[in-house]
Write a structure and sequence with these properties.
The complex is a heterotrimer of chains A (470), B (625) and C (415).
Chain A lengths: L6 H19 L8 H18 L5 E3 L4 E3 L1 H25 L6 H20 L3 H19 L6 H32 L4 H7 L4 H17 L8 H8 L2 H26 L7 H21 L4 H22 L2 H32 L10 H4 L1 H15 L5 H15 L3 H27 L12 H19 L2 H10 L5
Antiparallel strand pairs in A: 1-2
Chain B lengths: L2 H5 L1 H17 L5 H27 L7 E10 L2 E9 L1 H24 L6 H20 L3 H19 L6 H32 L4 H9 L4 H18 L8 H4 L5 H10 L1 H11 L1 H4 L3 H22 L5 H21 L3 H28 L17 H15 L5 H15 L3 H25 L15 H16 L11 H5 L12 H23 L5 H7 L1 H8 L4 H47 L6 H27 L1
Antiparallel strand pairs in B: 1-2
Helix pairs in contact in B: 2-3, 2-5, 3-4, 3-5, 4-5, 4-11, 4-16, 4-20, 5-6, 6-7, 7-9, 9-12, 11-12, 11-16, 12-15, 12-16, 14-15, 14-19, 15-16, 15-18, 15-19, 16-17, 16-18, 16-20, 17-19, 17-20, 18-19, 18-22, 19-22
Chain C lengths: L1 H14 L7 H20 L3 H10 L1 H11 L7 H34 L6 H6 L4 H18 L8 H8 L2 H26 L1 H27 L4 H21 L3 H32 L10 H4 L1 H14 L6 H16 L1 H8 L1 H17 L18 H16 L1 H19 L9
Helix pairs in contact in C: 1-2, 1-9, 1-12, 1-18, 2-3, 2-4, 2-9, 3-5, 4-5, 5-7, 5-8, 7-9, 7-10, 8-11, 9-10, 9-11, 9-12, 9-19, 10-11, 10-16, 10-17, 11-12, 11-15, 11-17, 12-14, 12-15, 12-18, 12-19, 14-17, 14-18, 15-16, 15-18, 18-19
The chains are: A mainly alpha (470), B mainly alpha (625), C mainly alpha (415).
């Protein structure tokens, strides 16, 4: 085997450590360079990962898989990381003395995700997951002076531990039956027993917590609201995508549908999630909570792809996860700008944004429309794949629920748009977002629109990535 | 002879429309120029019509002339724009163009100085053009198109003085009432298209002859009949015509004589092959016509407005024509249409001259002894009235006589008696008007003056026509009219001396009675009014039909409208809003699950796990069983 | 249809010449709107079709809330209602399209969204019915089919002039276009089964909405409901499933497009100057504004189906076509012409005619660029009405393909 195959993971680990130490070495003012350093390094890693995209190796006796599926998600995570770091710059100016912690834990969480995406074995997966989660505990409670932040961190810690326990319990039950934790070997050992089913359900629950499926979603709004906005963004995008990556790999490869109809179970959960997430989002007045519920609903949509369990569906999962990075990051970046400017995360804070900064308002609008699945944004294409898959798998009712709820969701997205375009604000001074955030916004806009208007390349990447399951 | 005029017949229609377009687009700033153009156009149309008629009548044209061009074409449906020229058409062309020409010339004086002078002429041109297009139509589609345009023009002209509420409402009333009739006509046309696959008159004539399903044919005929009932103001759709005199008086003349109301009678004549195929419908037509004749005549007896009296007399005469159609005397009906066009336009224009002279006053009791101040108007009016009353040898005598003869000889005794009674009433109310307005003992109107020549010359021409037009259909000219305007299987009755004598006597009696009451005042008409106040009020209020319609309209149409709007707002919209509220409400309720307590969250999670496991176990059992 | 879009788009731009505030946003949103509509009519791919269709929804929302006006309901409410209603309708449509896409793989061996390829496929009848119901819901909502019309009057009332023009004029027509192009062409069997139901609902449109117009006071509501009423004719034309009626429906869509656009342009102009749209506030405006009155008259007369206006051609053709299929329904629908005439003439009478009212003496008549919508749309109405053969040649080109599909159709149910 070749170490180069693991270069992304190694580079990330190194980067995280270096950033942590840089914080100790550099004088306070000099820490400003950390943002560009991190971004440039991540860009390098992105290119590295891109180069390895088609590589397909099984390392450590199958414990670790290097394949396009994993690589796809690695690119996704890194891209998300870059965007988060770009948009976080201004936000972090208040915390200059501890900024290194932020960056390095960010990178470590990233590493955890990468491991989850590539793990070929349940324990490895669990380790990746814990690496990610623990980093997030710290990041969530990053605002030391803020009670909400501390509370959120604590809640996340408790509930996260609970879910980890459930997941671990599930893994152990499955291990008890199949005698292995290597995903690829499980299907062969699969036997239909109550214990096995309990194990599957527990694993499912563990993941469901991470991707915040109803009724395991309760933590998300509180924590999203309490955590610093960039962390929330990363949590919503990265952590969720990592859980999806792992979940798809585990469920599709390890648990044959013929013996236990877990897609039906997931379909029900997805429907409930979509309905509940969107309905509660309708009445939110805080942008972070709104986006939290919206992202709960989004998780429901993505699960539809796994329910469909066919080419369209799986492709949809990947496609959607990727565009979700751009759209959601765009929305969060805009929210970050507004919070930095007004100090509030209430939707009212967006009043008159279209006059104060037309560019931010327009990008925010486009990104939210993408989340709602309105063409010509990428969200529409993603939903199209997902629901094509569902219909092909004869889950017509699920497609109905999903599409109608997604149209209803337009209501709350437009509520924000309305505030931006016709709301009035006493403060009408122009908002000038920083260069870094601006760049992040433009990238998000470009991604959202590009994948919407010309979905071909991304679709091909996803197609290559899911070859391993077909 | 003049065969080339047929090739140019399309110009008859097009010229007035061209005048309209030119005035509307470019000339509306120059009123005089507009009027010249309009009069020129209708004059040329008149000239061409004369040539066409000369060719048809004198040149001995045997076959009908027909050309057409494709207007609306798709597989299964063709509507052409064409020309159909035969005796019937030729008569109508002459009538329409001559009356329209004279009315337009007259209007030059009457409408002088009106701010809407150009628009007035533009509308007049549309009116004439539409009517001519209708007359020349060779199929029902085209007929309907121009039929509606006639309606439009009448709407515009009746509502010409749109500053008045009454004019505005009269115009709407005219259009809507006609629409009700058009509804039937359109359905009839649809039936024809579906059953026979063509709308062409000659094509339909051939098809109908071989068609045996009488029930369908009756339905179609009745539907088609709704059109003429509306347009020719037959009961029960007559309400618009009396109100229509809200327009300028020359317009009333045109509507009452040549263009609008004639269209309905013309349609019956043109589609006679359909109506005559079903005796039941013919009877219906006759009864409607007869009833309208009587009904309107009774109302005319007691009205006080000079134009209103004339309007009800028109209704009554139209009833005559329709009745004639119904008893199979189509030729007589058309003949009466023609003579009526001349003397009624004469009467209206003369009445206009009176109104013009005394500054818009229309109440006959406020006029009196006008004969001294307006001799031409007076005597032309008297000629018109005599013609209308059916005094020999004026035109009305010949045509009315033909109808009564048809009824008498055709065995429709009831209708004959009715017709005679109406003739009596007609003579009475016309001369009531004359004695009160022109002779009478009233104090007279000081400032009255004779109208300018531009108005009196048309009166004189029309008076001449009112005198002589009847001869073309009289035995003196060997029933020349009947040779050209006829239909296959027409029966012709020899003149009966008795019928002639009775109708003449009746007319003279009517005049005499009017003379006795209003000139000599041997009988006090005010006392009569007191004694029969019940009947008087009923008649004066036109049998309360307008009130009834108004009530029905308010109660049902607007009631329904309001009810449906309520339904739309509170039920249809309410459902939408309700669903939205429900969705939002669900959101609010679900939101309470979010307590902020970690314990609760953990409990939800574990409960979720347990429920899922439970469900799966249950499902598993279900599978096992 | 493209002709229509261009005509109306062009006029709409001129109709909004006076927008002073936030000009840039207004016109860029308007252009997105027009582009979207054009795209819908141009494409032969269902995916692209749907995409363009949804593209237009959001700009409309923004235009309504930014530039609209609040009367009976607030503009925010109107805009949101319009948007969400249409989107939910489109959700049905999307399910239908996706199902078609998926099913085409089973039938044809490869998945496709190309209209013509799909039209050649022979779908099982049950599937066709299911699909057509969804499409009827989706397109029907857009076409304001009774009882899914609730968005339309409020939406038009709230929207700024140009949006009302484009929405009523063109966007609604996507519904009809879709039903014909996609519904009838791809799913003739389903259409035959569902058509009678659509016809009954369409009758609801025609009569019900016409009645409601009678009780309205706000000019925009009158035109809003009247457009619901007119769409009933279009729907009947489509539901009658024969060539004549469908031709009629297409003409009617064109006709209603130009007519409604002209109406809204005139109303917009009047509102801009007088700041009211209540019929009772007006009277005798023909004294002060003869040109505006001409525009109102042309639009109104076209609306009541007067011959010489293109609408008559549409109505007449629809009636002839539909009469062969649904006797009773068509008779009832034809009665719509009476009520339409009634409310149109009453409205015109109340606004334009009657005694001169001095309080409106300050109103300026149309002049300069304000004349453009009147001239362009008025000319379209008249030319189409006087010389319908020009229009027919265009439409016959487009409908030819349908003939084969409809050739052997039997309509289910007797009405």
């Amino acid at each position: 085997m070749s170490w180069t195959l693991l270069s992304v993971e190694i580079a990330l680990a190194a980067l995280g450590s270096v950033l942590l130490m840089l914080g100790l070495l550099l004088p306070e003012k000099g820490r400003r360079v950390m943002q560009p350093v991190a971004v440039i390094a991540l860009l390098g890693i992105l290119i590295l990962g891109g180069g390895l995209y088609t590589a397909q190796y099984s390392l450590f006796n199958g414990n670790y898989q290097i394949d396009p599926f994993g690589s796809f998600f690695k690119l996704l995570f890194v891209a998300a990381g870059i965007l988060v770091i770009l948009s976080a710059g201004r936000y972090l100016e208040r915390f200059e003395e501890r900024v290194n912690e932020f960056y390095s834990f960010m990178i470590f969480a990233l590493l955890g995700m990468v491991v989850m995406a590539s793990a070929g074995e349940l324990i490895t997966l669990y380790i990746g997951l814990e690496l990610m989660t623990v980093s997030f505990y710290i990041l969530t409670a990053y605002l030391l002076q803020d009670k909400l932040s501390a509370e959120a961190g604590l809640k996340y810690l408790i509930l996260g531990a609970l879910s980890s326990a459930i997941l671990l319990f599930g893994i152990s039950l499955v291990y008890a039956v199949t005698g292995t934790t290597v995903i690829a070997d499980m299907a062969a050992q699969f036997s239909m027993q109550p214990v096995m089913i309990a194990g599957i359900i527990l694993i499912l629950t563990g993941f469901a917590f991470k991707i915040s499926l109803v009724p395991f979603h309760m933590w998300a709004p509180d924590i999203y609201q309490g955590a610093p906005i960039p962390v929330t963004a990363f949590l919503a995008v990265g952590s969720k995508a990592a859980a999806f990556a792992a979940m798809v790999r585990v469920f599709v490869i390890a648990f044959p549908v013929s013996t236990f109809d877990w897609p039906l179970l997931l379909a029900i959960l997805a429907a409930i999630t979509i309905v509940v997430g969107n309905l509660i989002a309708l009445v939110q007045t805080d942008i972070k909570r709104l986006l939290a519920y919206s992202s709960i609903a989004q998780a429901g949509y993505i699960i539809v792809g796994l329910v469909a369990y066919n080419t369209y569906g799986l492709k949809g999962v990947l496609f959607y996860a990727m565009l979700y990075v751009f759209s959601n990051m765009g929305a969060f970046a805009a929210a970050t700008i507004v919070e930095v400017e007004t100090g509030s995360t209430d939707i009212k804070a967006f009043n008159g944004l279209a006059r104060r900064s037309p560019m931010v308002a327009a990008i925010m609008t486009v990104c939210m429309l993408s989340l709602a699945g309105i063409p010509p944004t990428a969200g529409f294409v993603g939903k199209f794949y997902l629901f094509s898959g569902a219909i092909q798998a004869d889950y017509l009712w699920l497609a109905f629920v999903g599409l109608i709820m997604s149209m209803i969701s337009v209501y709350y997205y437009l509520k924000v748009a309305k505030a931006m375009y016709i709301g009035t604000n006493d403060d009408v001074s122009a908002i000038k977002p920083g260069k870094a955030v601006g760049a992040a916004l433009w990238v998000c806009l470009a991604g959202t629109l590009l994948f919407g208007l010309y979905p071909g390349p991304l679709s091909n990447l996803a197609q290559v990535a899911i070859q391993i399951f077909l | 002879m003049f065969a080339w005029s047929l090739e140019l017949a399309w110009l008859i229609v097009l010229l007035p429309f061209a005048a309209f377009a030119l005035i509307g687009l470019f000339l509306h700033r120059w009123p005089r120029l507009s009027a010249y153009l309009s009069i020129l156009a209708i004059g040329l149309s008149f000239g061409l019509s004369v040539l066409v008629a000369a060719h048809v009548f004198l040149g001995g044209m045997q076959e009908t002339f027909e050309v057409s061009m494709r207007w609306l074409a798709m597989p299964g449906l063709n509507v052409d724009m064409g020309l159909l020229i035969d005796g019937l058409t030729a008569v109508m062309l002459i009538v329409v163009t001559s009356v329209a020409l004279l009315v337009q010339i007259y209007s030059w004086g009457y409408m002088h100085g009106d701010p809407g002078f150009s628009s007035y002429y533009a509308y007049q041109s549309v009116f004439a053009g539409a009517m001519l297009g209708l007359v020349l139509a060779n199929n029902f589609g085209q007929l309907f198109v121009f039929w509606e345009l006639v309606g439009l023009a009448s709407y515009l002209l009746i509502g010409f003085w749109f500053g008045r509420h009454s004019a505005k409402n009269a115009a709407v009333k005219a259009f809507i009432t006609n629409r009700v009739g058009d509804f039937g006509l359109l359905l009839g046309i649809l039936f024809l298209q579906i059953i026979f696959g063509t709308l062409n008159f000659s094509g339909l004539a051939a098809e109908v002859a071989g068609y045996t399903n009488t029930a369908i044919l009756i339905v179609v005929s009745i539907l088609l009949l709704a059109g003429p009932i509306g347009k020719s103001a037959q009961f029960p759709l007559h309400v618009w015509l009396p109100d229509a005199m809200e327009g300028p008086t020359p317009v009333s003349a045109l509507i009452h004589a040549a263009t609008m109301v004639a269209a309905g009678v013309y349609l019956i004549a043109r589609a006679f092959f359909i109506f005559s195929a079903t005796p039941e419908v013919m009877m219906l037509i006759a009864v409607i016509g007869g009833f309208t004749a009587l009904f309107a005549a009774t109302i005319a007896l007691v009205q006080n407005d000079i134009k209103r009296i004339l309007a009800y007399s028109t209704l009554s005469q139209l009833g005559y024509m329709v009745m004639a159609m119904g008893i199979g005397a189509m030729t007589a009906g058309m003949f009466h249409l023609m003579t009526h066009a001349f003397f009624k336009s004469l009467l209206f224009l003369a009445a206009g001259s009176v109104i013009h002279a005394i500054a818009g006053e229309q109440d006959i009791w406020k006029m009196g002894r006008l004969k001294d101040k307006m001799p031409i108007t007076t005597w032309t009016f008297v000629i018109g009235a005599l013609a209308l009353a059916g005094i020999p040898p004026l035109s009305g005598f010949w045509s009315k006589d033909e109808i009564l003869l048809g009824a008498f000889a055709g065995g429709y005794t009831g209708l004959y008696l009715l017709g005679t009674l109406v003739a009596f009433m007609t003579a009475f109310y016309m001369f009531r008007l004359i004695f009160v307005v022109f002779f009478g003992s009233g104090k007279g109107v000081e400032k009255a003056h004779e109208s300018p020549p531009v108005m009196t010359i048309p009166l004189i021409i029309l008076a001449v026509m009112a005198v002589i037009a009847g001869f073309v259909g009289s035995p003196l000219m060997d029933y020349a009219f009947a040779r050209f305007v006829t239909y296959p299987g027409a029966v012709h009755y020899e003149a009966s001396t008795m019928v002639i004598a009775i109708s003449s006597l009746v007319a003279i009696a009517g005049i005499g009675l009017a003379w006795a009451i209003y000139q000599k005042e041997w009988i006090n008409h005010l006392q009569m009014r007191e004694r029969f106040s019940g009947i008087y009020t009923l008649l004066y209020n036109k049998y309360y039909i307008d009130e009834l319609y108004h009530w029905l309209g308010q109660r049902f149409v607007y009631g329904t409208a309001k009810a449906l709007f309520w339904f739309d707002i509170y039920v249809v919209n309410g459902l939408v809003n309700g669903l939205a509220a429900l969705t939002g409400g669900a959101g609010k309720v679900l939101r309470y699950t979010e307590t902020g307590q970690v314990q609760t969250y953990a409990a939800y999670m574990l409960a979720g796990v347990i429920v899922i496991v439970g469900l799966v176990v249950l499902a598993g059992f279900a599978l096992l069983i | 249809m493209l002709l229509l879009t261009n005509l109306i788009g062009f006029s709409a731009v001129y109709a909004s010449w006076k927008v002073a505030d936030r000009v840039k946003e207004f016109f860029s949103l308007l252009l997105i709107l027009i582009t979207g509509v054009m795209g819908t009519f141009l494409t032969t791919d269902l995916f692209i079709f749907f995409m363009f269709y949804e593209v237009v929804v959001i700009p409309i929302y923004l235009l309504v809330i930014m530039f609209g006006s609040s009367k009976r309901v607030t503009k925010e409410y109107a805009g949101m209602k319009l948007t969400i209603y249409l989107l939910i309708g489109s959700a049905f449509l999307l399910v239908a399209l996706v199902a078609l896409f998926v099913k085409s793989k089973a039938i044809l061996g490869f998945p496709t969204m190309d209209m013509f390829t799909l039209a050649s496929a022979d779908f099982p009848i049950g599937f066709q019915i299911f699909e057509f119901v969804l499409m009827a819901l989706g397109f029907g909502t857009l076409l304001s089919m009774f009882p899914f019309h609730a968005w339309s009057p409020d939406g038009y009332a709230g929207a700024p002039t140009a949006v009302s023009m484009i929405h009523a004029g063109v966007l609604k027509k996507i519904g009809g276009y879709g039903l014909i192009r996609i519904g009838l062409m791809i799913l003739p069997g389903g259409a035959a089964y569902v058509a009678p139901i659509i016809a009954v609902l369409a009758l609801g449109n025609v009569v019900y909405a016409a009645f409601i117009c009678l009780s309205q006071k706000d000019l925009k509501y009158i035109v809003g409901y009247s457009s619901v009423s007119h769409m009933g004719y279009v729907l009947i034309g489509i539901a009658a499933l024969n060539l004549i009626s469908i031709n009629g429906a297409i003409i009617m869509m064109f006709a209603h497009g130009v007519m409604a656009a002209l109406f809204f342009a005139m109303i917009g102009n009047l509102y801009e100057k007088s700041h009211t749209r209540n019929v009772d506030d007006f009277g005798g405006l023909a004294h002060q504004m003869p040109r505006l009155a001409t525009g109102f008259m042309i639009a109104g007369l076209a609306s009541l189906g007067l011959p010489g206006m293109v609408n008559f051609i549409g109505e007449f053709t629809i009636f002839v076509g539909a009469f062969g299929t649904y006797k009773v329904l068509t008779i009832l629908a034809v009665s719509g012409i009476i009520f339409t005439a009634l409310y149109i003439l009453r409205t015109l009478g109340a606004v334009l005619f009657g005694p001169r009212r001095p309080e409106w003496d300050h109103l300026q008549d149309l002049k300069g660029v304000e004349m453009v919508p009147l001239l362009v749309l008025g000319a379209a109405i008249l030319i189409g009405g006087i010389a319908p053969f020009t229009l027919m040649d265009l439409i016959n080109l487009g409908v030819g393909d349908l003939v084969a599909q409809l050739g052997s159709l039997q309509i289910g149910g007797m009405f």
